[in-house]
Each structure stands twice: as C-alpha cells, then as structure tokens.
Write the structure tokens for this entry.
Amino acid sequence: MSLELDQLNINEQFEQLIAKEDKLEIKEFLDDQNISDVAELINEYPDYEAQIIANMAIHRAASVFKILDIAQQKDIVKELPSSKTAELLNELPADDRTDFLEELPKAAIRDLIKLLDPEERKITLAMLGYPEDSVGRLMNPDYVYIYAHNTVTEVFDTIRKFGKNSETIDVIYIIDQKGELVDDIRIRDVILAAPGKRVDEIIDGRVVSLNVHDDQEHANQVFKMNNRVALPVVDDNNILLGIVTIDDMLWVANEEFSEDMQKMGGTEALNEPYLDIPLLKLFKKRVGWLVVLFIGEMLTATAMGYFQDEIAKAIVLALFVPLIISSGGNSGSQASTLIIQAMAVGEITIQDWWRVLRREITSGMLLGSVLGIIGFIRVGVWHSIFPNIYGEHWMMIGFTVGFSLIGVVLWGTLSGSMLPIFLKRLGFDPAVSSAPFVATLVDVTGLIIYFSFAYLFLQGLLL
Amino acid sequence: MSLELDQLNINEQFEQLIAKEDKLEIKEFLDDQNISDVAELINEYPDYEAQIIANMAIHRAASVFKILDIAQQKDIVKELPSSKTAELLNELPADDRTDFLEELPKAAIRDLIKLLDPEERKITLAMLGYPEDSVGRLMNPDYVYIYAHNTVTEVFDTIRKFGKNSETIDVIYIIDQKGELVDDIRIRDVILAAPGKRVDEIIDGRVVSLNVHDDQEHANQVFKMNNRVALPVVDDNNILLGIVTIDDMLWVANEEFSEDMQKMGGTEALNEPYLDIPLLKLFKKRVGWLVVLFIGEMLTATAMGYFQDEIAKAIVLALFVPLIISSGGNSGSQASTLIIQAMAVGEITIQDWWRVLRREITSGMLLGSVLGIIGFIRVGVWHSIFPNIYGEHWMMIGFTVGFSLIGVVLWGTLSGSMLPIFLKRLGFDPAVSSAPFVATLVDVTGLIIYFSFAYLFLQGLLL
C-alpha cells in the first residue's frame, strides 16, 4: 500500500513542478525517480508524455521509453521534435528499438531509420531482416567478449573499457579469432578467480546458445531450463551475433500469453492494449471469427429443419435442445483449453495424441455419465411434480436426454482434445481451436446424436 | 534442428554407459552435460531418474532437480535413499526447496524437513510461513550485503568470501547496522569504479524493493518495469530478508498463465502437468464446474417449457434456437476473454468499467448488426430456394431472427465484459468467468430475448 502512497506523492510533486514551469527543476525531479515511477507518471499524465521524455537525461529517457505501451511510444515519437527522436532512437538498446519499429507502418519505419547513426542503422536493418518472433529480433549486439588466452586481469580491463555500453556484464563471452562462440563465463567466476589465471583455466566448456532463427518461445524454454541471465545468439556457423537477456523473456511470455488467450476466446490477437486499440480495429479483430462461427452454426438451423417433423410430433424434444448442445460445448471447451495450455507450456507434443485420446475417452465417459444421470433425474423429478409435462413416456424421454448427454459430452471431450493436436500437426496455431470454435463444431453433431437417441427410445411411442 | 541431433547423441551415449554399468564413467558423463540436457535425459529415461540424480555432483544434481516437474521430483525423492535426499534438499536453493515442499502432503513435508540442517530448516520453516503465491515463498536468503562505508576493494573481498554461496552477485545490497535496506548496486558499477572509492559515493539512492507479503504477480510486474535481474525483499520495517531473482519470474508467469487458461476453459487449476495428473483427480477438477454449468443450463429447459405453446404453434421458431443462443455465447466468450486478459496483464482495472462498458456497447451493436443482417439474409435466401419452409410470413421470421441476434449479441458482449470486472470487484478471480460460464449465463436470457421478438413480429400471424 505504501507504494500507492508514494505514487500519490510523486504525482503531487510533479503537478507542482509543472505549475512552476521550471524546466531545470522538472529535469532534476525526473532524473531522481525510478524508471517505473516515471512510466507511471506518463500513464497518469498522458498530456505531458512527450515533455516528460524530453526533459530527462537521454539514457534514462530511453529506459522509460522502452517499458511504455506501443500506443504511448507512438504518441511520444509523433510529438517529439525530430532531433530529440533521433537522440532517443539512437540511445535505445537495439532490441527495444527493433521491438518498437516493427509495430509501425513501413513508411514510418523508413523515416525513423534515417534518423539513426550509420552503425545503429546497420544493426537495426539486420535485426529487422530476421523473422518476426525470432530470437534475431530480441538480441542485443552490445556484449563483452574476450579470448580464451586472456588473463583475469585482462578481462577486468576489457570490462572497464567496453562494459559501460554493454547490456549486461553478468556474463562474458569467449570467442576465437574467427568470431565463433567458444564458451560463456559468469562474472562471479571471474571475480572469484585469481588475477593471474587464464580464462581457459576457469571455463567449463558447457555453453548454451540460441540460434538467431530460433523461435522466441523456444528461447523462453531454454532460459527456464538453464540458470542464466543472458544467452548468446549465434548464426548457423556458430558466429556470435549478440546476446538475449532474460528480462526480454518476461515480455515475450506476456505477449505469447495475451495472444494465446485472445485466440482462445475467438478473437484475433489484438497486439495493442484493449483500451488503446481504436474501436473500429477492435471490431475488425472480432467480427471475422464471429461471422465464421455464425456461418458454421447456421448448420444447426439446417439440422433442426431436418428434424422439424419429429419436433412437431414431440414438442418436448425441442425443450432440451439448448441443454444438450451447451453441455457438449462446455465439455469441449474444457478439453480444448486443457490441451492447448499443456501444449503451450510444452507438456504435450503431437506424439502424445494417443495418450491424450485414451485419457479423454475415460474422462468423457465419466463426465458424460455424471451429467446424463443428473439429466435423467431432472426429467424424473419434474415428471413427479408436473405429471402432464412429459406425459406417460417420461422415462423414455429421460433415457433420451441421459444417453444423449453421455454421447454429446464424450464427443465434445474427444473433439475438443484432438482438434488442437490436429491443428498443430497441420502447422496451424492450436490456440485457434478456441472454446467458441469447438462449441460450434460440437453443436451440429450434438443435435444429430440427440435426435438419434430420440429415434432409438421414442420410435413408435412419440415419433 | 541441430539441438535435436545433439540430444539423440546424448541419449545414445547414455544408453551405452548404462549398458556398461560403470558408475564412475556415468558420473563423468553426466557432469559434462548441460543442466537442461540432463533434465531432458530424465524425461526420456524415467526409469533411471533417481540414478541419474544420485550419480551427479550434488550441486549439479540440485540444479537439475529444481527444473523438473513436480511429479518427477516426487518420484525421485521417493526412490532416493534418505541420506541422498538429505544431501539434495540441503543443497537446493531455499526458494526451490520451498517450491517443492509446498506441493507435498503435510506429513511428507514434516518428514523431509527433519532431514535438513538446523540452519536450512529454520529458513524453510520461515518461508513456508508466508502465504502461498507471496514473494516470501520465492525469496532466497543467500545474497551478498555490504555497508555504505565499505570501499570498492572491501566489496570485492566480501564477494570473494561470501559470493560462492550467493544466488547471484550481479547485484549487491547495502544495508545499515539495523539490517535495513539502504540501496542496491550492480556489480558492473562496482567493477567500473576506482578501487579506493566508497560505496556511498557510487550508489544512486534509487532502490526498488519487494515486500515479503507482496503477491508474486505484482513482483512479476515490478521486474518487467525495472531493468533488474534481482530485487531485494524486505519486511514491513524495511529489514532486508532475502532476494528474488528474475529467473523465478519466468516460472511464476508460466504458472499464472496455466492457471488462468485452465480457469477460463471452465476447469479448476490442475497444478500438475496434464499427462501426469491421475485420471480421477483430472475428473474431479473438471466435473465440478461442468455440473454447476449444467444445472445453470437446465434453466433453458424451463424457459423452453414456458414457450412450449409458441413452439407448437410455430415449429419454425425452434429451428433457430441453437443459432441464436450460440451467437450470444460466442460474443460473450470473446468479450470476457478480452477483458480477463487485459486485467491479467494490468491494462484494465476495476475503475475502467465505464470505459469498457461504452466500448462494448458500440462493439456489441456493430457485431450484432453484422450477424443480424447475415441471419436475415439466410432466412430470405432459404425462402427463395424452398418457398414452403418459412411460409408467407418469412420476412417477419427474418426480422425476428435478425433483431434477436442484435439483442443477444449485445447482451452477450455486455455481460461477458462486465462479469470479470464485477467478479474482481467482489474479490473473486476474474478468470472464473470462463467462456462456458458466460455462455451459460447468456443462453437463458437469449431465449427470452428471442421469444420476445417473436411476439413482437409474429403475434397475430403465427402466434
């Protein structure tokens, strides 16, 4: 709670300074705050966002800029004079700069890249050349490298010389004359070693590296499984190109998470915060899937039309239609979510389909039986309270409902669990087998299952 | 791809060594591999999991153990002789040990804690005293601290003396005589400073810390917003208790993500990998919500019963029931997922409810109109192909379907977006307003909306 109080204090001070319009004092105040507090100020006072960035020491401005939302970043760059934008973009770490640029329209990227110094421009163009969601887009070319024959003292000299601009010095990289990655070493091991020791005496030969074309999600897994704060990035010839730091992984995880969730809810990935995305764009992201699902769902009207005569003969059948199909949809949503989630965190691979299927057959039977029994009891209880409602054949109606529920739930569970695996096999993102998608798929089949059981139990009685 | 080849090589070598049964060679081989490769070996050869752990240098065994699944960890501890278990548990970093223990039954925790050395036991008991999902459970008491009056040379001496057991030396903590946290300093700044400088000359007074009772999700946000690899943890009196490192955040994010996803799919959080959880437990996690939803959904049968006479008079009305209610469910799922996701990543707070509502009213109207128009066209087209199907009042039926769709989609969107916010306001986890939950909620209302429009358009004609 004290954090919120602090924020209130900061806000108050900021308002007083803004009222005084003393630029120097504002600058001093801003440079005195934590990066995250300044970002919070920008959230609170969007009108001053460009001013806040412009009035900070440039390396701190860059640190704040890189943790802002893309919408805020765009606004700021639009408002800043282009000399200041140039300064800011040149100061931004290469990975964060690429991250910002890739969200912009092509023309805007071109204009902004012109503002960069030749060296930074070269780096940025190279990074933008790597596929989206690849490690190449995340890497930073500023790291400290040494050679295996260096001594510990030489390593410290190198760090003092080049460490200031490096993204991290927690890990140092050893390369050979060709630029190939030999090993990495943690700064702790350098500090703990005697000054006269040579690097090749203290390295352990166990290096974990990422390929520049690796998927970012893969990088996330590698970080999780190896206790490192940074990993080296190499090309196909093992040439060291840059490093990726673990803090980027928190953002990757966050983004993956948001995209997966949104797809599972039956929307395209927004790629922008909900409250910032223009309404028309939000509509576009949603309407596509909704229309596809709606057209798929139209088959239910066709299926119902096919069973129209049966419904006319036994209106009672119509009463349970929503209950039956929604049960299939719910069990399908459960199953698909479980499998998508397990696949997303790497617990299940395509090869496991058979194990999943076996588990889901049992689960589906059990779940279906529970709902089937409750459904049958529901019919029985209502019959005993209102004897007219289902008539003399209430028990057969109960059986129809009960067995349909077993069939529909089993079918929902199976299709919900197999669909994500099948989509992945075909090379699609399993997350698109969203809850609504599975529900729609199950609805039509659910009707057929239901009316089939109705024939079985009620032919000659009501039908 | 070369990674997978490497793994094949490792597997082959391992099989040969196992066949030879030369313990020393196995130990050498294992100590030569990366931590993550050994973890992969354990995945591939579960029969040898305890042997693999037992045959490694103990600090490496601990590093492997901490990245395994809880199910594997349990198996290994069950199989290892208790002397080896004691060694392993004492070697595990305190945070990973707590993480493992908290998943076990109370009796097992008691037995294992007895195996710990007095010092480690004290730490573990203290950590287990903090609430689940609090920062206290993640922290590590092994860090390097110094005093503000120390010189840079003294800092290096301290690191050489105590750094070996510290989880990280990338950040060093400055405390005062009372043990209160004064500041933190990155090792890079120490290395770059002149040896004779005093610590208080190089610190910047900007320290970001976590409270031991803070939520882990909050910690994740703080890490994302502040460029740090470790954060200090303090109690309410600002006494430094331990540190949390950023790699733990990847696991926290992963866990939060899995839990949220599972809840949104209408399951309780599994807390175990899908393929490892016993089938009966999996069933239990799923059946609860499914039954609740089913009982809620029974109201549709009641509602349908209420409109039974209308259906008898105009069977055609029954045909569109699944289409109408599923459209409400789909739009509701979309809206609820978007809002839950935005709340999970902190883009939306409860205070934003009014902004969300305004956006969703417009979105719902737009989306509903699109589906409504398609629905009307569907009726018209079918009528022109099969003139008998809807009879002379096809246009009124089309209006009923079209306007119902607008109403149902708008209602779905509004309830889907407001429910998560409302649940959060009441102190519940918004993720439980899962797609199935919203769909169920919308189904009953959808029927009422549909039959109301039917009255409006068809009274005196078909009704």
The mean pLDDT of chain A is 88. The beta strands of chain A are 145-146, 171-175, 181-186, 210-211, 230-234, 240-245. Chain A has three domains: 2-129, 145-246, 279-458.
